[in-house]
Amino acid sequence: MKSKFILVGLACLSFGTGAKAQDLIKQIPEDAEMIAAFNVKDIVQKANANKLNELLQKAGFFEKSGISASNDIKNLGVDLSQTAYFYTRKTDSISFTEFIFPLNNKGQFEKLLHEAGEPKAFANGYLSVGLKPGSMLVYNDRIARFISATTNTTFLDNDSIASRYGIKKVDYVARPSDDYDAWADTTVAAVDSVAEVWDEDEKPLAVPVAPPVAIAVEPDTIVASTEVYPPVVDIAGVDAVEMHDPSYYDSLYTAYEDQNRKNDSIRTGLRDKWLLNEASRLLSGNYKSLSISDQEKVLKNLGLVRLYVPRVEDLYRGLMPYTSSLPYYYMGIKLDKFKTGYQDGLLDLVQEGNVLKLKGSVGLDKSLAEMTKRMYARKPNSKFSKYLTDKTLGFFNVNINSEAYLREMPAYMAKYYSGLLGPQQDVVEWGLMALEIALDEKAIAQVMPGDHLVVVNGLRKFKKDYIDYTYDDDYNATEVKKTKEETLPVFIWMFTSKDQRLIKKGLDMAVSKQVGQVYDGIYAFSKQKAKDFPMYVLLKEDLVMVSNDSLSLNDIRQNKMNASVNKDFVKLMKQNKMSAAMDLQKLPGMLKEMGVAPGKQWEATLAQLNQYGSTAITSKGVVGNRAEVEMSTRLPQTSDGAISYLLDQILAELNKR
Fold this sequence. Notes:
The chain is built from 25 helices and 20 strands. The longest helix has 39 residues, at 246-284. A hairpin with a 2-residue loop joins β9 (342-352) and β10 (355-364). The chain has a 20-stranded antiparallel β-sheet, sandwiched between helices. By secondary structure, it is α+β, with helices and mostly antiparallel strands.
């Protein structure tokens, strides 16, 4: 049954946006932590409905769901003209997730639920079906909502909160032999204490449950109470013979396990109670919906799938549950003072023909946006272009304004992070100010302004020394230095340097100390150990170049680079503050030349890379008040596009089974 509903979800996610999408998005609470929107209509059009049907058939979905006669996703009862949503909501005690999708035929949809049991009346015209523990499905004629809940363990780890709900933390300890009755009474009290702590409306839920009524009190409302500690037992009085009796320890373990089972039962009861309360609250509409501005950010220019985080800073805090307590006590760190300058975050999955893209962006506050623009206000050196050729397997380029970066970073650290340190805040701010005064940004920027390019240009065979051992008749080992050939990628790292005096002086010093040598203007640094490869440095015009291949640097020194320029790579580099790309078509040949065997299961996939284009990660820096980044992969050209091609690959794999 569980696998079936996973397939239902996949089927629903495989199909649009219409006017009704506005109605569904209003079901999402304003305090949602993460929201995902699925453009069902666009997905099914780009994926090809016939291929989706074929995929579900081969997965056995239609046969198991009882609608095998038609074998058509249109008979799932799901409205394929609207957008489906998934979101998470979190309190200090519990985390909720909900998947909302529209229906156009309740009868057809109910056929998928026949194995889960008979639907029961719930609330506000909804029916409910119980699924796996901690989850439920509620639906009416128009909408289906899959809601699940998970308790946050750190909430109930607090002794006073655990005591409030009747959870007793007991240790596996020995009982004193001279006070059996007292020990037994204590154990029984620990096991049965739930009856004393639970109010009438807080008792563990029986199954089946009546339709719940929404309550005003939130599950994470904490009532102050006195901490309760497990009884401390003095084992000094335990009779030695009794302690060696196996049944004695069996009884201890039984009591320990009984209490743990009772604790688990309480936790389960709380989770189910809070889940029912949440479902009642949602269906009654007794909450504030997502704001209009957030709704627009979810739906505006929606591609295939969008993930939206309304408050990135809150998400950071939610990912660090322990940092609000332990560091505060031991290091003086105050998480409530933590700032990032980040606002909302977006991640989009988009298809553009045969190109599949992931586009991400995060909103920045005004101060951080202006600061970041200054730090990345630099273009790549135009001389980099000629080193991106048709031999280039891949490259990485980043452009930072070193002067602005060194000038802005102390102010950035002081504004956003010094507040974490409580009493040490003044000292940190003083140290950052001292650093700002000590740095000569302009001088450092002349040595290394901040534009860097790393290029991987094919392969070359390198001779590598290694240590082996020979043994005499008495098994005494003797080191033997041997040489072997290895085929490795050739790389060149280059950066702009207007003032190369410091770098050249350092290189000359290394030569004078016999750490390196210089041949025709190329500095060579020998391998220090048998496992190392030599490195080479060339100073040419306003560029500093570091490589593992002296032949490449020698060609550059003599202006003998005859390869054609890779226009796609040059375009990526010039149009972005940061860019990295790899030509997937060259990857199979490179691996073969290196002697890397992918294994039979990967042979076909690797061979298909000859039809692919480049995979790239790029960033234009800050546009408006948003920091943007994009990842794209050019798949083989087909008439239906990228998503359809991926489905073809999945079907091909299923046909092999």
